[in-house]
Amino acid sequence: MFSIKRIFQPDYEHYEGVRPINIYLLRLLFLLVVVFVATDSWSSILKHEGQWDHVKAAAVCMWAAYSVLSIFALINPLKWLPIVMFEIREPQEADEIRWRGSRVVSYRRLYSKGGQLV
Predict the structure, then answer these.
(1) HSE, side-chain direction, 13 A CA sphere, residue 22
(2) What phi and psi values does residue 113 have, to the nearest 5 degrees?
(3) What is the rounded distance in angstroms from the CA atom of residue 75 to the CA atom of residue 34?
(4) Structure confidence by residue, pLDDT tens digits, 88-98
(5) CA distances from 16 to 9, 12, 20, 22 (A)
(6) Against a cut of 0.70, is the pTM above it?
(7) What is the dihedral of CA 66, 71, 72, 77, to 10 degrees?
(8) Residue 31: pLDDT band by 50, 70, 90 thresholds?
């Protein structure tokens, strides 16, 4: 039986302690991505004629991939939650440089000890 009170209480059996209202809102977000982003990106891909601009082509293909992955996320939204985080904020150029720099430093530390994992 459906109860309004029950959707605001954590559900440990089905959703790992997440409130069902949060799951429903997450599914709504993924459904909106499927409906609106998929129609726009896939129609742009299928109706395109001529040469692609490299930057625009990468962006359109990225959004088309998001829409396909969002179909899977409708079934199990918690496992696909990281894609929402990536959609919300993509790294800026300064963040990318900082991230790559941190990788270089960590690899340098790793291999400065004679190539042994510490």
Answers:
(1) 12
(2) -95, 30
(3) 13
(4) 665 555 555 55
(5) 12, 5, 10, 12
(6) no
(7) 90
(8) very high
